[in-house]
Structures are given as structure tokens and as C-alpha cells.
Amino acid sequence: MNTVADPQDLARRFNENEAVWRTFERKRERRRTLGSRAPFSEVALDDLDWAEAERECGKVRCVGKFMP
Fold this sequence. Notes:
Elements: H1 7-34, H2 42-57
Helix pairs in contact: 1-2
């Protein structure tokens, strides 16, 4: 069966992406509420929040074989 069309795989990917998005929203809202004194643009701060949310929730996908 093609993994792209596999409903369970699609649901798993959706749930992983949703977890990252919810974490990102929480971080962004907290930063905006507390006020950021960083000298960066709002877009750059959003990118940093997104990267942190991916590190916390996302899985690192690898290409290739494991080489001990």
C-alpha cells in the first residue's frame, strides 16, 4: 500500500503537525503578552518560536541508512 494514501499515516502526520502548531501558538501568545525586548522583527521571532516548537514536539526525520 502506498504510504501517501495510507489513512493512518495521514492521521499520524496531521496529529504531529497539530501538536507543533499548538505549541507554537502558545509560545507566540506568551511572547506577545509578556512583550519582547529583542531587537528582531516579529517574523524572525515567529520563526524562532516555530523552530523551538518543532524541537519540542516534532520528530527528526532522517534519510538513508544508519551507519554505526
